[in-house]
Amino acid sequence: MSGVLAGSSNTLGRVGIYDCHVHSAVSADSEMPPQDAIARAQALGVGLCFTEHVDFECSSDKCFAADISQYLTDYEQYRSDTVLLGAEVGLTYNSRAASRKAVSDDRLDFIIGSVHIVRDYDLFMPEFYEQDLPWEDIYRQYFAFTIKVIEHCEYFDSLGHIDYISRYSRFDIKNVEYNTFRKEYDKIFEMLIDRGKVLELNTRRLGDPSAAKCLYSVYEGYYNRGGRYVTVGSDAHSTEVIGANFDIAADIAKRIGLNICYFKNRRLRV
User: CATH top-level class for 2-269?
Assistant: First the structure.
């Protein structure tokens, strides 16, 4: 494990690795010009896939449901072998039909499915964590909802940031350990594999050694259930985050035996 936690540089220097989770100015929470993102990725020697937000139930005054058709038309000029166009759809049960329609455009290379909202609670907001329940039960709500939307939302390629709840948890225990929630994790992994989906290895928290250690065991559990592929994504909303902690992600994948992949024309590539 020591090698997993040792590095923190952002550059792998091989374009075979794509940052498959990047938000530009099309997304409501980013102001990054696409040209700046592309230049940064080229400087790092990685490809990138724009994954603009499609969230119909986000609790914000801003619109997080990008106009995918307009975005794809506007960004076609940037598409190349190393610049792909995708979307990140917020998986919810109530908006599944609208989401399915929004990401049905066959010009999309890749779709991340992410859980940002659980039972009308935005996981970014403190209210979800203020329920009068033990912390383990609140985390299990997150897993139960994830299982539900995987069952009913077939229109994505990779499940995004499985540790998303750890970013915003108000509990002292933020890392969601594999051994504590083995039953829930294994169910998610089995459902993804059965449906031909893969798991994202999100690099946002890998700079924290405790998070990297926790996530190592999670992805080892994914491998042990039969998972063989991961997309890697920084969840960048600004240029300095593109490719962040990719060396750590690559080390985790190599040690476990996972293959880093990307999607083009909605088809898995390695």
Answer: alpha beta
